[in-house]
Fold:
Amino acid sequence: MTKQSFIKGALILLMAGIINRILGFVPRIALPRIIGAEGVGLYQLAYPFLLVMLTLITGGIPLAIAKWVAEAESKGDSHRVKQIFHTAMAFIILFSLVITAAFIWFTPWMVATLMTDPRVYQTFLCMSPLLLIIGISSVYRGYFQGKQNMIPTAVSQTVETAIRIVFQLSFAVWMLPYGLAWAAAGAMIGVIAGEIAGLLVLLWHYRRHKRSSKPGQAEPASGGEAKLSDRPKKREPILRHLLSLSIPVTGSKMIGSFSYLFESIITARALAIAGIATAAATAQYGALQGMIIPVLLLPTALTYSLAVSLVPSLSEAAAQGDRRLIHKRLHQSMRLALVTGAPFVVVMALFADPICRLLYNYAEIAPMLTWMAPIGLFIYMQAPLQAALQALDKPGTALSNTFIGAIVKLLLIMKLAAMPELGIYGALIAINVNTVLVTVLHWISVTRFIGFRMQYLDFIKVGGAMIIMGAASLWLMKQQLMPALPLNLVAACLIGLLIYLLLMVKLGLIDRYDLARIPYLNRWFK
Structure:
C-alpha cells in the first residue's frame, strides 16, 4: 500500500476536494432552480437530523482508527492494524443498524413535535439508509488515512459526488410532479446512490490491497515487521480502547451536530415569532444553509484535506516525541489555510451580488453572503486547529470549546432571529459569532498545550495583499471591459488573484518549494 507524506497526502485530498466542490456546485446551482428555495429549505431542515445520527455513529471512529493505525504502523505492528480494522467494522455495522431502526421508529414523532413544516416527513424516511452506508465507509476511510494513503478516500469522494449529482437532480425532477415534499425526498435518494458508489470504490481498493499481499504474509507496515516480542500475547480490549479514543471526539462533534440541529429548529420557531410565514421561513432558511453557506465553504476543500492528513502525521510525530515536526506541520497547515482562503473572502465580500445572480438567479440573498464573507478566514483556520487538538490527545478541550460556542450561538439565535427587523439575519449574526469564538478558543488551547505561535507579520502581509487585490478587482469590474457580466466577473477575479499570488511570492509567503509540491508544476520548481 502506498504511503504518502503529509504534504503529498494533503494535496491528493485537496485535488479531490477541489473536483468535488466544483462538481458539488452543479446540484447547488441546479437544485434551487428545480425545486426553489422552499424545496431546498425542506431538504436542509431534514439534514441536521441526519448529521446528528451520522455523528453519533461515525463521529470519532474514523479519527480513532486513523490515529491508532498510524501509531501501530510507526511501531511496525501490522497484527494490531488488522485487529483495529475488524473490531471497528463489526461495531459500526451493529451500531448503525440499531440507530437506523430507532430513527425510523421515531421519525413520525420528530416531524410532528419538533418541526414547523410537516412536509419534511418524506425526506426523513428517504435518508435513513444512509446511516449504515456511511458508517461502513467511515471505517474504510479511517483505515486508509491511518495508513497515510489518501488515494482511496480521494477517489471514493469524487465518484460519490459524480453519481450523487446525476441521481439527485434526476430524482428531484422525476418526483417534482408529486409536490415539493417528494422532490426534496428525491434529492435525498440521490445522496444514497452516491454514497453506495463511494462505498463500492473503497471496498474495491481494500480488496485490491488484500489480493496484492502474498498469502500468509502480514500486511506491510511502514516501519517494517513487528518483532515477535512486540506482538500482543493475548487479545487486548480493542473495542474499549477504540471507544476511549473516539467518544471524546464524538462528543465534541455531537455538540456541533446538536448545535446545527437546534439551530434549524430554533431558527424556524424564532422566524415564526418574528411574524414570518412558515413557507417563507423555510425558504429563507434554505437560502442561508443551502445556497449561501455552501459558497462560503468552497475553500474548505483545502482545510478538510489538511485536517485529514494532519491527524495521522501529528499522531506519529507525537508518538515519537518529535515536537519540532509537530510545530512544522501545524505551521504549514495554518499558513496554507490563511493564504489560500484569503482571496476567496475578497471575492465573496466584493462580488456577492453578481455571484448570487449568476449561480442562483436570486440576487436578493446577496447581502447574506456579504455579511458572512469576512468570517470565512476563521472557518478555514478552524479545521487544522481542531485536528491538532484531536491528534495531540486533547479532544476534551475541543469539545468544551465547541460547546461554549454552541451555547452562545443558540442564545443569540433565540434573541436576534425573533426580532422582526433582523429575522434571518439574526441567525446569520449568531453563526458568525460562533465561528469566531470557537476558532479563537481552539487557537488559545493549541498555544497553551504546545507553545505554538504563528508569525503575526504573516497576517499583516496577507491583509495588505487582500486590500490590494480587492481594490484592483473592484476597479476592473467597474470598467466593464467585457460584453457580459460573467466575463467581467471572471476577468476581475482572475487578474485580482494573479496580483495576490505575485504579492504572496514577493512577501515570502509562497516560495518555489511550495510550488514544487504541486503536481505538474514540480518539474519547473524543483
Remarks:
- Residues 215-235, 517-522 have pLDDT under 50 and may be disordered.
- Residues 6-58 form the longest helix (53 residues).
- The CA atoms of residues 61 and 246 lie 5 Å apart.
- The two ends are 26 Å apart (CA to CA).
